[in-house]
Design a protein that fits this description.
With 245 residues, the protein is an alpha/beta fold. It has a single domain, classed as Spore Coat Polysaccharide Biosynthesis Protein SpsA, Chain A, CATH 3.90.550. The protein has 8 helices and 13 strands.
């Protein structure tokens, strides 16, 4: 069995939309879900997926998160990379890729959990030889997200479709990527930028990007309504993942 790629978790955001629920000081990764920090559920899920090395990209609330980590007994190795200033998703990814030095990594948002099969996703990335792979999920109403257009056979990404005013089903970016770090770091990019808007959308013609459309369960705790739903959904998802692993 091949060794799993290291995984980077982007957990440096301010969590502005959750402030009314969490209060002013708590970093979003430490938001309580089912009685535990959301980050605890993410790390448990990664352990179940046979991940052995995790990179935490931290900014706001770094000290509190690191303090919590010191009290945990984990079966995986955690490396912390801190942003001295907010860098956006793109800047945070590039900073962590340079700091950690792995040639290939899986990158995921720190406020999202899915039922993605990470070993299969990594295998798909290896088999295609792509520069970057995007995990996607189908939703009945993609109007608030914008959708991914990709070739049904090769799964090559063709376009990012803009948000549409009329509700319609479609595949959306689930915020999990497999990245060829050496290839991505070739680009001359600003220190702070959005990975999705300022990089992926602009480099469709320059990079071989593939879509892995196999996610069927997806939750993002970034807004209060989804955070409330996560209290029951996330523990169940992790329980199912443990059963399947």
């Amino acid at each position: 069995m091949s060794r799993m790629l290291p995984c980077m978790i982007l957990a440096g955001g301010l969590g502005t939309r959750l402030r009314p629920v969490l209060g002013a000081g708590l970093p979003k990764a430490m938001a309580s879900v089912g009685g535990q920090p959301f980050l605890a559920w993410m790390l448990r899920w990664l352990e179940q997926q046979r991940v052995t090395d995790v990179v935490l990209s931290l900014g706001y609330g770094c000290g509190e998160i690191v303090g919590w980590l010191k009290g945990q007994s984990l079966e995986l190795s955690v490396t912390v990379v801190e942003e001295e200033e907010p860098l956006g998703t793109g800047g945070a990814i590039m900073h962590a890729l340079r700091s950690y030095g792995a040639p290939r990594m899986i990158v995921m948002n720190g406020d999202t959990i899915t039922n993605l099969d990470l070993p299969r996703f990594a295998g798909f990335f290896d088999a295609t030889g792509a520069d970057l792979a995007i995990a996607a999920t189908s939703v009945p109403d993609a109007s608030r997200y914008g959708t991914l257009e990709f070739d049904a056979g090769s799964k090559r990404l063709i376009a990012f479709e803009e948000k549409r005013p009329v509700p319609a089903p479609g595949f959306i970016n689930a915020g999990v990527y497999a990245v060829d770090a050496a290839r991505v770091l070739e680009f001359d990019l600003p220190r702070r930028f959005s990975f999705e808007d300022d990089f992926l959308r602009r480099q469709i013609g320059s990079l071989d990007m593939r879509v892995f459309p196999d996610i069927t369960e997806f939750i993002d705790i970034g807004i209060p309504s989804d955070y409330a739903r996560a209290q029951q959904v996330v523990p169940l998802m992790c329980e199912q993942s443990a059963h399947d692993s």
